[in-house]
């Protein structure tokens, strides 16, 4: 592993040295939900951030497999974030605009990661395609216009309305 990636990984692991203290703070109730969410998100982002040079490999199968694994990992991470955000919402028995926006962002990112996974995964590893939608039932359309409206010059029951082509 090149020196830059090694430093990045070591820094991420060093950040995890505070995990026991963070857990104790959570257990004591000294850390709020937003702080917990931020701590774990930052730790996971730091661990998944290093670029190990998969893009520079000549082996296309290896490169594609690593990208697919990364997309699946991203989808799993956004699923965990979604679960954490919803747990906070259910515990508070309300959803704030910030919580709602976070959920929308995480859902969109998860869907994007799953779509990328489906595009890059090998055929046996691809998720199954959704079943086709059933055809819509055919609706017989009938005219709702009364016959007096269709015939130009026909008298109209409401004297204030004139049918097309009738004399004024």
Structural description of this entry:
Helix content is 60%, strand content 0%. By secondary structure, the protein is mainly α. The longest helix is centred in the middle third of the chain and has 33 residues, at 60-92.
Summarize, please.
By secondary structure, the chain is mostly helical. It is built from 6 helices and no strands. The chain starts with a helix and ends in an 18-residue tail after the last helix.
List the helices and strands and how they pair.
Layout: H1 3-15, H2 19-28, H3 33-48, H4 60-92, H5 97-120, H6 147-150
Helix pairs in contact: 1-3, 3-4, 4-5
- Measured on Cα atoms, how large is the radius of gyration? 30 Å
Average of pLDDT: 79
Number of helices: 6
The percentage of residues in β strands lies in under 5%
Give the number of DSSP strands.
0
Regarding quaternary structure, how should these chains be classified? single chain
Fraction of residues in H or I helices: 55-70%
Low-confidence stretches: none
Order of helices and strands: HHHHHH
